[in-house]
Each structure stands twice: as C-alpha cells, then as structure tokens.
Amino acid sequence: KTTLTIALLFLINKASAQTVNSVDDLQPTEAFDNIHVQKIDTDSLSTTFAIWVKLKVKMHKHVNHMENVYIVEGNGAFTVSDSTYEVKKGDLIVIPKNTWHGVTISSKNPMKVISIQSPEFKGLDRVLKKD
Description:
Blueprint: H1 2-15, E1 35-42, E2 47-53, E3 56-62, E4 66-73, E5 76-80, E6 83-87, E7 92-95, E8 101-105, E9 111-118, E10 126-128
Antiparallel strand pairs: 1-2, 2-9, 3-8, 3-10, 4-7, 4-9, 5-6, 5-8
C-alpha cells in the first residue's frame, strides 16, 4: 500500500511539474529552408512551440483553437484577418480561432517566435488559404 501511494505521488508530481526555458538559448535542432518548428511542451489545454521562419508563413487558420505569437527575434509584416502590422522583437500577436493569419519576414536573420496554441495543437485543424 505504501509503495502504491509513493508511486502515485511521484506520478502526480511528475505530471504537474513546471518547465523553465531560456528563450534566448533556444536554437533550431536542424538546418531548414523556410520554417522550423520545435515543440517545447504540450498537454490537453495548450501546446507551446519555438518557431523559426526565414521567408514566410502562408495565410492559414486554425478552425478549433487560438494562438498567441510572441516575437523573440526578427521583424516582418504579420497579417491577421484583413489587417497587416509591421512587427518586431517584443511584439505579441493574439489570433482568435478561425482567423486567417500569416507573416512575411523582412529581417536578414530568421524570425524566432514562441507560439502558444490552445487547446492542444495536434496539426489537424490547419486550413491553408487558397490564392
């Protein structure tokens, strides 16, 4: 009984453990042509990614979830719905679910962002906009 209790406490603690990451230290894990996505953490409520973009992210929407994008490095033109914004390091873009969005990079170096998507992102509800 004691062993079972200890095992359950360990699992509960492990499941609720928090993660601390230095955003500045995040680097792509491999060479890439345009976009590199690195999952940082996920659960049923949200998924957090580090994303690097060299050229652009085509217009798309997520039917079932919202996204928050925080720009860590780089700049560009970020379109949300019918509006385009010049964005830079330190900017936060809040994208409601089912809203068209995309970005074109204007900086010499790739744009690095932290993307938090809610609920958990499984890659099933991304719809690309037809040109």
